[in-house]
């Protein structure tokens, strides 16, 4: 049965969630992992929704298995992070998004969804924002501007945004320019500093992302290769110039 199983008794009051599904540039994955590690966030719930591969995840020097997609929480910062070690199947993205969105709505959670906009350039990464419900207010307060041209967000993250719009859930979608060929720690830094931090009302150190950029790239490339071998596309944002 598709469900989210809460395993920790933590007090959260209308928290903010940061989504970290693997996508182009592995921006969401990098952001989620950084937050969980930087804050020492506690394992909060297992995400057992359709589209999640049935595999067991283990950590070095630990014997306990955990689900590949899970929630970590920090009550002090009123923050929840959706962390994923595997791609969610886009062919089952609709069911996955409905499962997650139902839980978010029931628990009064405001999600921040993350997506990369492929851009092969050494120019500074630009950050844009889209929203559902009253999420535009959060973007305005954070100074995040909308994209200059129309486009779409595909894959599981796109399905989550679609469900948020369909159900009237307040949400924010952060779209950052990212190198589609490699994991992009710089794009993750931009998202954290200029998007996640002001919207969630937190402070997070990002110097580690810059200093360990090459190490992070190498570690993430293995996941990127596995994603490239999959038949389905991962989450990404893309312009719709051809339709305008």
TrEMBL record:
Q: Which InterPro entries does the record cross-reference, listed alphabetically?
A: Proteasome_assmbl_chaperone_2, PSMG2_sf
Record's SUPFAM superfamilies? Cgl1923-like
Q: Where is this region: Disordered?
A: 222-244
Q: Which Pfam families match?
A: PAC2 (PF09754)
Tell me the superkingdom of the source.
Archaea
- What is the recorded name of this protein? 3-isopropylmalate dehydratase
């Amino acid at each position: 049965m598709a469900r989210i199983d809460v395993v920790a008794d933590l007090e959260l009051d209308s928290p903010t969630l940061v989504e970290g599904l693997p996508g182009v540039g592995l921006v969401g994955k990098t952001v989620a992992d950084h937050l969980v590690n930087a804050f020492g966030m506690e394992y909060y719930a297992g995400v057992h929704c359709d589209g999640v591969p049935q595999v067991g995840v283990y950590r070095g020097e630990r014997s306990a298995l955990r689900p590949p997609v899970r929630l970590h929480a920090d009550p002090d910062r009123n923050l929840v992070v959706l962390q994923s070690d595997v791609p969610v199947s886009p062919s089952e993205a609709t069911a996955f998004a409905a499962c997650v969105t139902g839980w978010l709505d029931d628990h009064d959670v405001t999600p921040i969804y993350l997506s990369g906009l492929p851009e092969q350039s050494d120019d500074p990464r630009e950050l844009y924002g889209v929203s559902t419900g009253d999420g535009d207010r959060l973007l305005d307060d954070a100074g995040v501007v909308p994209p200059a041209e129309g486009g779409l967000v595909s894959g599981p993250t796109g399905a989550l945004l679609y469900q948020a719009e369909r159900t009237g859930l307040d949400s924010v979608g952060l779209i950052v320019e990212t190198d589609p060929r490699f994991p992009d720690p710089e794009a993750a830094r931009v998202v954290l500093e200029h998007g996640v931090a002001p919207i969630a009302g937190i402070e997070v150190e990002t110097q580690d992302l810059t200093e360990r950029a090459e190490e992070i790239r190498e570690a993430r490339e293995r996941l990127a290769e596995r994603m490239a071998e999959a038949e389905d596309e991962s989450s990404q944002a893309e312009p719709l110039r051809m339709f305008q």
